[in-house]
Automatic annotation (TrEMBL):
Its biological purpose: Catalyzes two steps in the biosynthesis of coenzyme A. In the first step cysteine is conjugated to 4'-phosphopantothenate to form 4-phosphopantothenoylcysteine, in the latter compound is decarboxylated to form 4'-phosphopantotheine. Catalyzes two sequential steps in the biosynthesis of coenzyme A. In the first step cysteine is conjugated to 4'-phosphopantothenate to form 4-phosphopantothenoylcysteine. In the second step the latter compound is decarboxylated to form 4'-phosphopantotheine.
Entire-sequence positions represented here: 181 to 403 of 403
Name assigned to this protein: Coenzyme A biosynthesis bifunctional protein CoaBC
Positions contributing to CTP binding: 99, 109, 126-129, 145, 159, 163
Top-level taxonomic group: Bacteria
Cofactor: Mg(2+); FMN
Keyword Magnesium in record: yes
GO molecular function: phosphopantothenate--cysteine ligase activity; phosphopantothenoylcysteine decarboxylase activity
Organism phylogeny: Bacteria, Pseudomonadati, Pseudomonadota, Gammaproteobacteria, Oceanospirillales
Transmembrane segments: none
Underlying gene: coaBC
């Protein structure tokens, strides 16, 4: 592992889930544990980068030499990500951001009524990685993830194009041994030119391989 591939570079990484409140005691969220994003932050710091981790609520220790900003909602994650993004070289979006949030947050705990069916109204959240990739000035090299349960590579390729990303990490989350909340992962790194498969290993190991590969693509793009 080349310990200095990212020395002097600034990297921002999102990790974990977001929580979208319904009322003071309830929220909508997902099973992301933050393990993948935290492992990437550790690997990027080990590769010499200065790393800012923007994290949703998780139960993990912050890796050494990593600055961590804790957030809850997608809107907070967007604001924390954009803060200083123009000074950053590389952005990696590993967070599982809620695509929608409740239209309104009830001021008081929602009471159980007599109705059998209750409907929630949701509104689309901002897309953090697409916002960063669309910046007109100070756009960093931008890497997304694609969590898919079928047609993994095809969907990843369409997200790569639609969100205007430089690279996307395709993650099959239908297999419980890899993906959400597992200790292991297996992914395919997808670029406009091709694909690199990274077979199942610990998220820590995989993160080191991903940082190495991403750094090569990034350095090529700047030379
Ligand atoms: O946290 P772990 O338990 O370790 O699990 C890791 C993981 C499975 C969460 C991770 O490997 C992963 O795949 N992260 C992306 C999860 C996801 O929400 O994927 P998506 O296909 O819905 O989103 C595509 C990309 O857009 C992602 O880079 C996501 O961060 C980004 N996005 C999505 C919606 C949104 N509003 N803003 C975003 O930035």
């Amino acid at each position: 592992f080349e310990h200095t591939v990212l020395s002097g570079k600034r990297v921002v990484i999102t990790a974990g889930p977001t929580r979208e409140p319904l009322d003071p005691v309830r929220y909508i969220s997902n099973h992301s544990s933050g393990k993948m994003g935290y492992a990437l932050a550790e690997a990027a710091a080990d590769a010499g980068a200065s790393v800012k981790l923007v994290s949703g609520p998780v139960m993990l220790p912050v890796p050494p030499r990593v600055e961590c900003v804790q957030v809850e909602t997608a809107e907070e994650m967007l604001a924390a990500t954009l803060d200083g993004i123009e000074a950053c070289d590389l952005f990696i979006a590993a967070a599982a951001v809620a695509d929608y949030r409740p239209v309104a947050i009830a001021e008081h705990k929602i009471k159980k009524g007599s109705e059998e069916i209750m409907e929630l109204r949701l509104v689309k959240n901002p897309d953090i990685v697409a916002t960063v990739a669309g910046l007109e000035t100070g756009r960093p090299f931008t890497v997304g993830f694609a969590a898919e349960t079928r047609d993994v590579i095809d969907y990843a390729r369409s997200k790569l194009a639609r969100k205007r990303l430089d690279l996307i990490v395709a993650n099959d989350v239908s297999n419980p041994e890899i993906g959400f909340n597992s200790d292991d992962n297996a992914v395919t790194l997808v670029s406009a030119e091709g694909e690199t498969g990274l077979p199942q290993t610990s998220k820590r190991q995989l993160a080191r391989q991903l940082i190495e590969q991403i750094a090569q693509h990034y350095l090529k793009s700047t030379s």
